[in-house]
Write a structure and sequence with these properties.
The protein has helices spanning 34-41, 48-51, 253-265; strands spanning 5-7, 17-18, 53-54, 69-77, 86-92, 102-110, 114-122, 129-133, 139-149, 152-161, 168-177, 185-197, 206-218, 228-230, 236-244, 249-251. By secondary structure, the protein is mainly β. It folds into 2 domains: 1-26 and 140-272, no CATH class; 30-127.
Length: 272
């Protein structure tokens, strides 16, 4: 006879805080060297060329912050129309909590000498992204976004098109682990990994993601009010596969069945 597993969790602060997920196994985003940081950040602020960071905060960032802005990751690609090469910088600092404590700057390679500032997207964090080729030859980005707060941890996969005025695109799914929220019941989900694969013979890479999912109820017999009991047999690992056609991701038939089960665990899986 299987005994229920009791999971004791700690309640976290009520305000949302950015959740920094681990990089995917075969990722396009990369951690810059100090030399790279100086070259790239020279196009962002006056102190960038000497230190690889911004201090004080650049004028385009939000007001009232003096912690400086640092480069966390860079993704190179052909993100806009034309032959120009771009660098998308994931930056921390100089932005409030509502903007995920940072944002992303897009730079364009100017001639043979320097990077030129194109635009800043506050709150848009791009530390963990994979490039996918668009039908018109540009690069789209599949990025993992996440945050934790009020006892809930969320991870999402979002397809982004930087040619749009505001970063926008397709949300594949959004896992949710609310076991720390002291709720009566909820989901225990985790995005374990995601990577590019080939599912067919076309020229576009496809996607495989691995998700662990289950459900819980609060254990009222425990002194810790936030102790939860995982429902016996509910925790499973799912392999989700999506074909890509240069514009959007489409789940395979098997994945559609898995998504139905995941939606039972978490009704917000396909949207907020």
């Amino acid at each position: 006879m299987n005994r229920p597993l009791i999971l004791t969790v700690l309640t976290v602060c009520s305000s949302l805080t950015l959740f920094a997920p681990a990089l995917a196994a075969s990722h396009s985003s990369q951690k810059p060297t100090l030399k790279q940081a100086k070259e790239l950040m020279a196009g962002v602020c006056s102190s960038g060329a000497t230190t690889g960071a911004c201090s004080p905060c650049p004028g385009f960032a939000d007001s009232g912050f003096d912690d400086g802005m640092t480069l966390e990751a860079v993704t190179y690609g052909k993100f806009l129309k034309g032959k120009d090469t771009y660098a998308l910088l994931d930056l921390s600092g100089c932005e409030p909590h509502v903007n995920n404590f940072g944002g992303s700057v897009l730079l364009r390679w100017q001639g043979l000498t320097r990077w030129k500032f194109v635009k800043f997207a506050p709150g848009y964090r791009t530390e963990n992204c994979l490039k996918y080729p668009a039908q018109d030859g540009r690069d789209l980005l599949l990025c993992e976004a996440g945050y934790a707060g009020m006892g809930t941890v969320i991870s999402s996969l979002l397809l982004e098109d930087l040619s749009q005025k505001e970063a926008a695109g397709q949300q594949l799914f959004s896992t949710s682990d609310s076991s720390g929220a002291c709720l009566e019941s909820g989901s225990v989900q985790e995005l374990l990994e995601w990577k590019q694969i080939k599912l067919n013979g076309d020229r576009y890479p496809d996607l495989r993601a691995t998700v662990k999912s289950g459900v819980y109820t609060r254990d009222t017999t425990q002194k810790d009010a936030c102790s939860v009991v995982l429902k016996a047999g509910s925790v499973r690992t799912y392999t989700l596969e999506y074909s890509f056609d240069g514009a959007k991701f489409t789940p395979t038939q098997a994945t559609r069945g898995f998504l139905k089960q995941l939606l039972k665990d978490n009704p917000d899986l396909l949207g907020y």
